Amino acid sequence: MSPMTKGRAGWLAPLSWLALVLGALSMVPPALADCPSHELRVRDAEGQLLVRLPMPQGDGWCLAWNHSVEGFTVHDCYRNVEGHMVLQRSHLPDFAAGLDHIPGRGRQVSDGQGGYWIEALDEPVPGDAYRLRVGAMRVDHRLVSRRDGTSLATLLDDARDCSAGEGYADGLVAMAAEPPVVVSLSERAANQRVTLALEALAPEPRGQDIADP
């Protein structure tokens, strides 16, 4: 082998090793740090888990329901703010029975369709949880995506790609075949009391296999 050929082979050897390392790194699954740190969980009066949704920092959801008298849809929209459940805004299509804007609580803004948004509520929910008496199917209390945030479908897809995402395809999240994702609480617990809570996901202990008890 000529000196030039030998030198070139010595130069290519480190590149081949580097290519192998980069290829191996590309096959490493997403780290736990990339997984959602919190979940929105709904439990019945006995503590049985009914719904779980991944809820990373900064993302959120809306609780929607049909007004029992007028029939239109009301939204209360929440967000995970540094691990705490915060009521951010509400949408009220009309000043119907039981719906009104309390002066000093948020800012009323027209939605351009005869209704209004109550913006800038930014009210922390005590204990990051609250109880709800779920209405019948004509009321249909349901969890839906925020219009100004990451969709529930995207949050679920992202969570399934990480090591903490197992279980989001089971009965605790009844997904439609295509987005948007709507999770009906009335289908699961009509006329019952449930608790909605934003809860932190405990990291797996180092060195312990996820499948271990």
Automatic annotation (TrEMBL):
Annotated signal sequence range: 1-33
UniProt keyword list: Signal
A Pfam family matched in the record: DUF1850
Name of the protein described by the UniProt record: DUF1850 domain-containing protein
Species for this entry: Halomonas organivorans
